[in-house]
């Protein structure tokens, strides 16, 4: 009799442990983390970039920031069952759809360029107009002059005025400029430990959206992902990220209070990823202007604190393609502070300024790895040199 009671007890205990494990894996709220040290809030009233939208979902609002208080950290994914989870769009349809969008947004550029190349006579005036068109696409002065010079020489040497041939030459030269030699893969395959991705950039460029979209891409690749909401500047940012994650069953480590130490949240996210044996942990950070030394120091600290726990495998700098050459100075400063390893160029939908890819890569020596082509959840594509150039030149 006593033996059967004992066996029943063991079986019940095993079932309970199993259920608890299932509960954790489903990404429901996990145990709260430890309270952490407080670091001072150091936003200035002029931290918003010019023209930044003054509303939630847009740029971070300076006035939103409360006095910083330490907060318990929480790992959250709202109650979702497998049935209510969204299924990220399959890569094939996503890439075809986004390619068409890239072609559409560069239509003005390609139309005027191809019209110029189709002229019977490509004289000095035409070359000047080609130069202007390339400059208007944000290719940058130096690359534009180099490209036009090379093209002129090739046309002279080959003696070919066939528009198709000139177009083919332009394609070749653009591909060389965009540089197919770069390794554009994300460094997120590190067996035996979670890969750590840190996402940085100025206000409102699309960092949180990018983290959310990228989480979906990774879920579609069967990766276990966890997010860290180290944008503690406004509560809405953590909520926004948690919502992105929960839609695809990805948990988010966040702080309950605005103004908590972002480095602390980042550290806890990485710690949680190690504990859960996740494949990837992505840490979202608050938008900050590159000329704010204190905020840039804070960002450097976020990275250093993470490194106490794990190496940081990717530092993705998110740049807004519509801001054109402004992005270049941002890129330089961010790269000095956190050693950027890849660029995400957002908002390429609706702008024909794709040439900025060349200028950024030349300036930083770092490849564009991903492009954002819309506000939809699956509007993120890997950057592919040839496809990109073809999209630029397609009518
Ligand atoms: N059209 C378009 N909009 C985008 C793209 N990526 C992001 N956005 C929009 O840009 C706005 C800002 O995006 P967020 O992800 O909140 O930007 P953030 O950099 O996290 O902002 P802060 O945390 O305030 O600095 C949102 O309205 C997004 O929907 C894109 O590729 N195309």
Automatic annotation (TrEMBL):
GO terms for cellular component: cytoplasm; plasma membrane. It is a peripheral membrane protein. It comes from the Bacteria. Residues 367-380 form the SRP54-type proteins GTP-binding domain. GTP binds at residues 201-208, 284-288, 346-349. Keywords: Cell membrane, Cytoplasm, GTP-binding, Hydrolase, Membrane, Nucleotide-binding, Receptor, Transmembrane, Transmembrane helix. It is found in: Cell membrane; Cytoplasm. It catalyses: GTP + H2O = GDP + phosphate + H(+). GO terms for molecular function: GTP binding; GTPase activity; signal recognition particle binding. SUPFAM superfamilies: Domain of the SRP/SRP receptor G-proteins, P-loop containing nucleoside triphosphate hydrolases. Coiled coil: none annotated. Residues 34-78 are annotated as: Disordered. The chain crosses the membrane at residues 6-25. InterPro entries: AAA+_ATPase (IPR003593), P-loop_NTPase (IPR027417), Signal_recog_particl_SRP54_hlx (IPR013822), SR_rcpt_FtsY (IPR004390), SRP/SRP_N (IPR036225), SRP54_GTPase_dom (IPR000897), SRP54_N_sf (IPR042101). Its EC number is 3.6.5.4. It is an enzyme of class 3 (hydrolase). One of its GO terms (biological process) is SRP-dependent cotranslational protein targeting to membrane. The keyword Amino-acid biosynthesis does not apply. Belongs to the GTP-binding SRP family. FtsY subfamily. Part of the signal recognition particle protein translocation system, which is composed of SRP and FtsY. Involved in targeting and insertion of nascent membrane proteins into the cytoplasmic membrane. Acts as a receptor for the complex formed by the signal recognition particle (SRP) and the ribosome-nascent chain (RNC). PANTHER family: SIGNAL RECOGNITION PARTICLE RECEPTOR SUBUNIT ALPHA (PTHR43134). This is Signal recognition particle receptor FtsY. It comes from Nesterenkonia alkaliphila.
